[in-house]
From TrEMBL:
Protein name (database record): Alpha/beta hydrolase
Upper classification of the organism: Bacteria, Bacillati, Bacillota, Bacilli, Lactobacillales
Keyword Metal-binding: no
Superkingdom in the source lineage: Bacteria
Species whose genome carries this gene: Streptococcus pantholopis
PANTHER family in alphabetical order: PUMMELIG, ISOFORM A (PTHR42886:SF29), RE40534P-RELATED (PTHR42886)
Length: 252
């Protein structure tokens, strides 16, 4: 089912799947990464996860952040802070329209950073948190003046920086330099599942190791042979889905 949610004059586009009714007892909210979308392409990580979650009886919502996919806004205006605002509206929808009694957040890459901070802001609302290759090193990169191989002056940030054909606004880097990622994340007291690929060349496993150090109720898996999208020659995606399924089934 296609859904749209309004946030400060922007229309956020999403998909509610794995259910034929609006109200559900439990739901997983999936958040995509930098330059990504909700997973329209067959074989995309979020698409595979949604199929597995729905098959296990868990309803899902995945959506495009502002400026991405089918959602309104310009990509150049996107920041981690604006994505947090998107996430707050999505969670509000899940709580008051879907009336979910259990809410699980699943974030990949930058979506993992957003999910971790949302859980830190809403520790009494989020029941479980799953972070997949969370890109918390985006703050380190912004302080150095680097983004996916593109270099800029971190002390005199330009109005825009082009990354793989995507025009990123200077505000993205300015706000990234001072994001309290781990300080907010550690306020979450619920169970956390961390999964990172050992061969990740986009976000080093150090990001998940830092999360592992601040969370109290957590488990961390480093997948040998897996890259940033948690895939590799030994069917690591299946391992990821099995770990998530086991984690969500606990204490139901």
């Amino acid at each position: 089912m296609e859904i749209t949610i309004q946030r400060d004059g922007l229309t956020l586009f999403g998909l509610l799947e794995g259910t034929d009714r609006i109200e559900n007892k439990e739901i997983a909210v999936l958040m995509h990464g930098f330059k990504g979308d909700l997973g329209y392409r067959k074989g995309a990580l979020l698409d595979e996860l949604v199929q597995a979650l729905n098959a296990a009886g868990i309803a899902t919502i995945r959506f495009d952040f502002n400026g991405c996919g089918k959602s309104g806004g310009r990509f150049r205006d996107m920041t981690v802070l604006s994505e947090i605002l998107d996430g707050l509206k999505i969670i509000d929808y899940v709580r008051h329209v879907i009336k979910a009694q259990k809410i699980y957040l699943i974030g990949h890459s930058q979506g993992g950073v957003v999910a971790s901070m949302l859980a830190g802001y809403l520790p009494d609302v989020i029941d479980k948190l799953i972070l997949l290759a969370p890109a918390a090193t985006l703050k380190d990169d912004a302080l150095k003046g680097e983004c996916q191989g593109v270099v800029y002056d971190p002390n005199h940030i330009p109005d825009t920086v082009v990354i793989d054909g995507f025009t990123v606004g200077g505000d993205y880097f300015r706000t990234a330099q001072t994001l309290p990622i781990y300080e907010v994340a550690e306020n979450y007291w619920g169970p956390v599942l961390l999964i990172h690929g050992a061969l990740d060349k986009v976000v080093p496993p150090l990001a998940s190791e830092r999360y592992n150090a601040v969370y109290k109720n957590k488990r961390y898996y480093l997948l040998e042979g897996a890259g940033h999208n948690l895939s590799g020659e030994n069917n690591q995606r299946r391992t990821v889905k099995e770990l998530i399924d086991s984690f969500l089934r606990e204490s139901k």
